[in-house]
């Protein structure tokens, strides 16, 4: 009879944790669902399904995080949303 020994190794993984920011989109009574959806597809590179879901969340909850990432990537995206007449901010 032979025995097999199992060895468990502890592995340390270094993860770089940078500060991630978020674009938060707020509800308004001006823009249509289609306009919001098209703006999210263009500015945030959402799929049509993602954009539709975010627009529904914004409508019912009042706000929704639509993109997460580094500030340098989010700033031009947020500017596009603002230029499209949407209410958004980076937090």
UniProtKB/TrEMBL annotation:
Single Gene Ontology MF annotation: peptidase activity
UniProt keyword terms in alphabetical order: Hydrolase, Protease
Keyword presence, Nucleotide-binding: no
Adaptor protein ClpS core domain: residues covered: 19-83
Protein's UniProt keywords contain Protease: yes
A biological process term (GO) from this entry: protein catabolic process
InterPro entries assigned to the protein according to its UniProt record, in alphabetical order: ClpS_core (IPR003769), Ribosomal_bL12_C/ClpS-like (IPR014719)
Protein known as: ATP-dependent Clp protease adaptor ClpS
């Amino acid at each position: 009879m032979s025995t097999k020994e199992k060895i468990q190794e502890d592995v340390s993984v270094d993860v770089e944790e940078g500060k991630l920011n978020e674009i938060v989109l707020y509800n308004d009574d001006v823009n249509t669902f289609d306009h919001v959806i098209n703006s999210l597809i263009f500015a945030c590179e959402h799929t049509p399904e993602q954009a539709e879901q975010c627009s529904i969340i914004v409508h019912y909850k009042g706000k929704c995080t639509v993109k997460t990432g580094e500030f340098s990537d989010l700033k031009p995206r947020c500017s596009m949303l603002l230029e499209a007449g949407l209410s958004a901010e980076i937090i």
